Amino acid sequence: MNGDALLPIGDLARQTGLTVKTVRFYSDRGIVSPAARSPAGYRLYDPDAVARLRLVRTLRELGLDLSTTRKVADRELSLPEVAATHAQALTVQIRTLRMRRAVLTAAAGRGSTPEELKAMHELTRLSENERRRLIDDFLATAFGGPDAAPGFAGIMRSMTPELPENPDSEQVGAWIELAELTQTPDFATLIRRLAAHVSADLTRPDLTATIHAHVTPALRAGIAPTSPQADPIIKAVTTGYAHPTTGHDLLTFLKSANDPRRRRYLQLLAVINSWPPPEDSTPAFTWLIEALTNSADAAGTGRT
Questions:
Q1: Which stretches of 144-281 are DSSP H helices?
Q2: 98 is in which domain, residue-wise?
Q3: What pLDDT, on the 0 to 100 scale, is given for residue 95?
Q4: CATH number at residue 26
Q5: Residues 59 and 83 in one domain
Q6: Are 154 and 298 part of one and the same domain?
Q7: What would you report as the CA-atom Rg of the chain, rounded to the nearest whole angstrom?
Q8: Helix, strand, coil proportions of the chain in percent (round to 5)?
Q9: pTM value?
Q10: Among the listed residues 11, 38, 35, the one whose alpha carbon sits nearest the alpha carbon of residue 23
Q11: Of the N and C termini of the chain, which has fewer Cβ atoms inside 10 Å?
Q12: Is there a single domain that holds both residue 263 and residue 212?
């Protein structure tokens, strides 16, 4: 061996970007061994030590433990297999960190109490099956469980959040809020009222579409819901609404459908499922509620 080709520990450290102390640490543990010693007893390393230590440094910076790093450097373990395993572990860690960040962000924004923070944290720790069971229980309560009308299956699917395997912080935050909303007893009652109204005739035209078709142009035209011009619009909506219902029943349904919690659920659902934001029916529903109320009041007092 040509002694001139050997590197003292200081040169090895400079070429690998490590400190002398770190090179000595790896050397003491047998990860890189000196090829010889100088007459004064200093460690000398061959050029192969440079490539070996550069690999060790890379693996350590990527988070591999010392034992695994040694086995890869010694070719006892396949680098691709180790990389794949470690990448999967990092995926799990990243997902966990996203969940934690979402919880802390939500807690900071809400000014949460310790009890609320604990509840939010527990929601993010649910497994996929546990999350699905939580939503399934809510929808079963809202739509009647085993006795639910067959036509409700599609509606229930459309109201089911599917948190992706690697959600972003916004999706995690939306999941927390939606899950909390489903645990509110009066919200399930609200959805059950809407479901009962819809179950009266699942074959009728979509009421929301009918309302938008007639009321949205009135809003754009600046027609007041209490004006005489509102009467033909009311008639068009109620006539197009196939199920025979009184204005009072329709008004009750609209007030429930216009509940901000229902709208918020649909908004959160869109975020979680990466759907386009839902159309905001609030302006049209609010206009029609006022128009129907005014029409009913006028009829009750005999006004024409």
A1: 152-158, 169-182, 185-198, 207-221, 230-240, 247-257, 260-273
A2: 78-125
A3: 78
A4: 1.10.1660.10
A5: no
A6: yes
A7: 33
A8: 70, 0, 30
A9: 0.67
A10: 11
A11: C
A12: yes
Residue 165 domain-assigned? yes
Q: Which residue has the tokens 């809020």?
A: 177
Q: What are φ and ψ of residue 18, in 5° steps? A: -105, 165
**What's the mean pLDDT in 293-302?**
69
Kindly state whether residues 147 and 264 are assigned to the same domain: yes
**Residues 189, 43 share a domain:** no
Q: Which residue is listed with tokens 């459908």?
A: 257
Q: Which two tokens stand for residue 151?
A: 């036509």
Q: Which helix (H) or strand (E) holds 77?
A: none
In a domain, 70, yes or no: no
Decide if 177 contacts 107 (C-beta within 8 A): no
- The amino acid occupying position 147 is D
Residue 45 and residue 186 in one domain: no
Those residues whose C-beta lies under 8 Å from the C-beta of residue 247, and which sit 6 or more positions away, are: 238, 292, 295, 296
Is 247's pLDDT higher than 80? no
**Total residue count of the chain as it appears in this document:** 304
Tell me how far the alpha carbon of residue 270 is from its chain's centroid: 9
Token pair for residue 191? 């959805």
Q: Give percent above pLDDT 90 in the chain.
A: 50
